[in-house]
Design goal:
- This is Alpha-ketoglutarate decarboxylase.
- It comes from Algibacter agarivorans.
- The protein is mainly β.
- The protein has a single domain, classed as Beta Barrel (Porin), CATH 2.40.160.20.
- Helix content is 0%, strand content 74%.
- The protein is built from no helices and eight strands.
- The protein has an eight-stranded antiparallel beta barrel with strand order 1-2-3-4-5-6-7-8.
- The radius of gyration is 16 Å and the shape is elongated.
Length: 139
């Protein structure tokens, strides 16, 4: 078993976003690994909205060779958005699925790469774009 995860923080003019997503993988051999992750995200844009996003994912990793890693990750997130009353936008609660296919450069415990959400829906996704860079750490 190897453990890792993701921490995220984004700050801007009246905007805050924080994410914590611990994960664990089991390496079957030098090439294949499979794991799970949980995700908790909080967003707040001053005088506009607040959201809480909770969920999890399943991830499969394949090392083509030591430095090149392919990944597939199925993510399911429950989104709860609460808008400022003066905006006249109803609160929103829904499930947001994502299926990421990725490629990364691996160096020891760290992998840098890019992934693409093949289920991307610009109206429901919590991500701005279907293309997302990533950094993975497993110890």
């Amino acid at each position: 078993m190897r453990y890792g995860g993701n921490l995220g923080l984004s700050l801007g003019d009246g905007f805050f976003s924080g994410t914590i997503a611990p994960s664990a993988i089991y390496e079957f051999d030098e090439n294949f690994a499979f794991g799970v992750s949980i995700n908790a995200t909080f967003n707040n844009q001053k005088n506009v909205y607040k959201s809480t996003i909770l969920g999890g994912s399943l991830i499969g990793l394949y090392n083509v060779f030591r430095e090149l890693q392919l990944s597939a990750e199925l993510e399911e997130l429950h989104v709860n958005r609460r808008y400022n009353v003066t905006l006249n936008i109803p609160d929103d609660t829904y499930w947001s699925p994502a299926l990421f296919l990725g490629v990364g450069y691996r160096n020891g415990n760290v992998t840098f790469g890019i992934r693409y959400d093949v289920l991307y829906d610009k109206n429901k996704s919590i991500y701005f774009d279907p293309w997302l860079p990533f950094v993975r750490f497993y110890f």
